[in-house]
Automatic annotation (TrEMBL), chains A, B:
<dbReference type="GO" id="GO:0004419">
    <property type="term" value="F:hydroxymethylglutaryl-CoA lyase activity"/>
</dbReference>
<dbReference type="GO" id="GO:0006552">
    <property type="term" value="P:L-leucine catabolic process"/>
</dbReference>
<feature type="domain" description="Pyruvate carboxyltransferase">
    <location>
        <begin position="11"/>
        <end position="278"/>
    </location>
</feature>
<dbReference type="Pfam" id="PF00682">
    <property type="entry name" value="HMGL-like"/>
</dbReference>
<dbReference type="InterPro" id="IPR043594">
    <property type="entry name" value="HMGL"/>
</dbReference>
<comment type="similarity">
    <text>Belongs to the HMG-CoA lyase family.</text>
</comment>
<dbReference type="GO" id="GO:0046872">
    <property type="term" value="F:metal ion binding"/>
</dbReference>
<protein>
    <submittedName>
        <fullName>Hydroxymethylglutaryl-CoA lyase YngG</fullName>
        <ecNumber>4.1.3.4</ecNumber>
    </submittedName>
</protein>
<dbReference type="InterPro" id="IPR013785">
    <property type="entry name" value="Aldolase_TIM"/>
</dbReference>
<dbReference type="InterPro" id="IPR000891">
    <property type="entry name" value="PYR_CT"/>
</dbReference>
<dbReference type="GO" id="GO:0046951">
    <property type="term" value="P:ketone body biosynthetic process"/>
</dbReference>
<keyword id="KW-0456">Lyase</keyword>
<keyword id="KW-0479">Metal-binding</keyword>
């Protein structure tokens, strides 16, 4: 991947709407619509796109077309195409589709892991260890997304040492990257900076991503704190797709265009084509059948000007 | 005003919903409801409450009950009660009501000033100078709120030197404080930090407040940047009341409970009783007749816990 040298600090934006967003939609998104959507994102400057999930079609019918999607999208050589994989069977399906990366997920919180994955953390870790073994030898990268890093909606605060220990166990397995997920919007800036800095210090060899939710309005503030801690990779979801199951009406995933808009104004080079993704985001309400929590789609970028009223001379 | 020494950095939150919020509501808020609302806020730890506006009842019928409100609220000695005043007539009315502070407003942008106030900036400055003269000799403080400091929705970028020059002209008149207003949510963190730092450096004798809008999702991020610049006073509106006239559906004023929630988590002492104001905010949809953009009201504070599902043994 060649990058123009702009003299600005590079940040990497990873688009998760095709998986994390569409998975949460009640209305099935037609396969060809998914493919067209991902193709548009592929030309928009994202470092990574989470394209789909190789879970059981019964468990997640919204993404039952994972193979077709992965085979039919037009891939850009500049984009890492990652997919969610829950187990060895999913990994095999993903490998057959020649994905660039598989993304594993489990929770730091025992209660949330059992609620979300119907397994204890130890069972999850064993299952994901098997996936890492199965993928070893392929050229496919492995990332682990850890849920509830900044708090659990059922347990409350999470001991940061449990986060570091779990990251360490995956690092020992040889995974390439870790994503620290603020699953229900409990992260706050000083906490993000502390945990981000410590994960970078303890595991300098891991590619670290932050995955923020805007449930309590803090996603952009948390992003600033993460950048202070040296983090340069961020998950985001176009239109803010992907809600919060615990708070009807509250925001979920941080909105890609809101994130990119702020970072570019601050002088960071996100690589993302903001006008381009705003055009794609504008198609989302039609695709998903409801309003989306994008602020920039509603208000326009900062320098969207409005006509002055007639002052009457 | 006595303050407990908590060892935490003190920040001052100034509630503007009774003026900036209610003024923008189509439905008239009953006078007794306004009074009860302000009384609840008075016991909630705000440093300042913008209670009403002494404008012409014809121009702003929503606040035509300014005198009654100011006379009937139960004032707390810990709160500065400020009111918006457009001219000498308004100042006289405000002084008769024994307000603690009058708040003047004009725009840094010529086009916005003409659109909003139907005057040139020079005409506004003259008119406000007369107000400052009229108030001189009383014990009432004077604050000036400058609109469009961080950008104008009609002109675009604003030259920061025009901001500093206008602040300087008011400082020369002897005003006590200045509020830098991000009228339509165009401020971004690096800009906020630069302008905030410079205003503090140039005018150390002025009490400086930041007034952010969340129109483009950046209000909390901008707050962090302002704190970096040494700013410790923030306007906010309960429930996020007070919309953006240029972007239907977009957020307006930063939401008080979202701001306080973040700052308290970060270890700042805002003085504000978060559970208390959440109770008041919960009454707002009934009062104004529509949903409000508060995130914390929807999602609950960070440690609002949810029951774990039954794992079935």
């Amino acid at each position: 991947m060649t990058e123009p040298n702009t003299g600005r600090q590079r940040l990497y934006i990873q688009e998760v709407a095709p998986r994390d967003g569409f998975q949460n939609e009640k209305q099935f998104i037609e396969t060809q619509d998914k493919i067209a959507f991902i193709n548009q994102l592929s030309g928009s400057g994202f470092a990574k796109i989470e394209a789909t999930s190789f879970t059981s079609p019964k468990a997640i019918p919204a993404l039952r077309d994972a193979e077709i999607v992965m085979h039919e999208i037009q891939r850009s050589p500049d984009v890492v195409y990652t997919v969610l994989v829950p187990n060895v069977r999913g990994a095999q399906r993903a490998l057959e589709c020649k994905v660039d990366e598989i993304n594993l997920v489990m929770s730091v919180s025992e209660t949330h892991n059992r609620a979300n994955l119907r397994m204890t953390r130890e069972q999850s870790f064993e299952q994901l260890s098997d996936v890492v073994s199965a993928v070893r030898g392929s050229r496919v990268a492995v990332n682990v997304s850890l849920s509830t890093v900044f708090g659990c909606p059922m347990e409350g605060d999470i001991n940061a040492f449990e986060v570091f220990e779990l990251v360490g166990r995956f690092a020992a397995l040889g995974v390439d990257g870790v994503t620290l997920c603020d699953t229900t919007g409990m992260a706050y800036p000083t906490q993000v900076e502390k945990i981000g800095r410590e994960v970078r210090r303890l595991f300098p060899g891991l590619t670290t991503t932050m995955h923020f939710h805007n449930t309590r309005g803090m996603a952009l503030a948390n992003t600033l704190a993460a950048i202070e801690a040296g983090i340069d990779r961020f998950d985001a979801s176009l239109g803010g797709l992907g809600g919060c199951p615990y708070a009807p009406g509250a925001s979920g995933n941080v909105c890609t265009e809101d994130l990119v808009h702020m970072l570019e104004l601050m002088g960071y080079d996100t690589g993302v084509d903001l006008p381009g993704i705003l055009g794609v985001s504008a198609t989302l309400p039609g695709l998903v059948g409801h309003d989306i929590p994008s602020q920039i789609l509603k208000a326009g970028p900062r320098l969207t000007l409005h006509p002055a009223p007639d002052f009457g001379g």
